[in-house]
Amino acid sequence: MTGEYVIEPTTIGNSVYIGYGAVVMPGITIGDRSVVGANAVVTHDVPSGVVVAGVPAKQICTVEEMLAKKRPTFKPPFDTANLDAISLEDVELFREQVYAAHRPR
């Protein structure tokens, strides 16, 4: 089969996020509300509502599971309604708490 190409339509559903550098091969269908990770190579159809990543792309989890993973939330140690009463020390303390939670381990 030299010199012949088969061109098939690629179908991408609604509310699909495709990461930077991802490659979707011809003829692939990506279902609604799915996520394709950056630099993934999608070689098989992706069902609705799942997260895929890797080379070749494999299912990592569902979108619901991804959204359920809660990130830490921070409440500022000062009254945000009264901005005049906020000291520089309060802001620095809050900044350190946020940075400490996001430092690589």
Question: Any overview of this molecule?
Answer:
With 105 residues, the chain is of the alpha/beta class. It folds into two domains: 11-68, UDP N-Acetylglucosamine Acyltransferase, domain 1 (3 Solenoid), CATH 2.160.10; 71-105. Helices cover 20% and strands 20% of the residues. The protein contains two helices and eight strands, in the order ββββββββαα. The chain has helices at 63-68, 88-102; strands at residues 11-12, 17-18, 23-24, 29-30, 35-36, 41-42, 50-53, 58-62. The model has no long low-confidence stretch (mean pLDDT 86).
Concise description?
It is built from two helices and eight strands. It has 105 residues and is of the alpha/beta class.
**What global shape is seen?**
elongated
- Output the CATH class name of the largest domain: Mainly Beta
- Please indicate the count of domains: 2
Distance between the termini: 52 Å
Q: Quick check: average pLDDT?
A: 86
**Widest beta sheet: strand line-up:** 2-5-7-8
- Summarize the main sheet: 4 strands, mixed
Determine the CATH topology of the largest domain.
UDP N-Acetylglucosamine Acyltransferase, domain 1
CATH superfamily of the largest domain: Hexapeptide repeat proteins
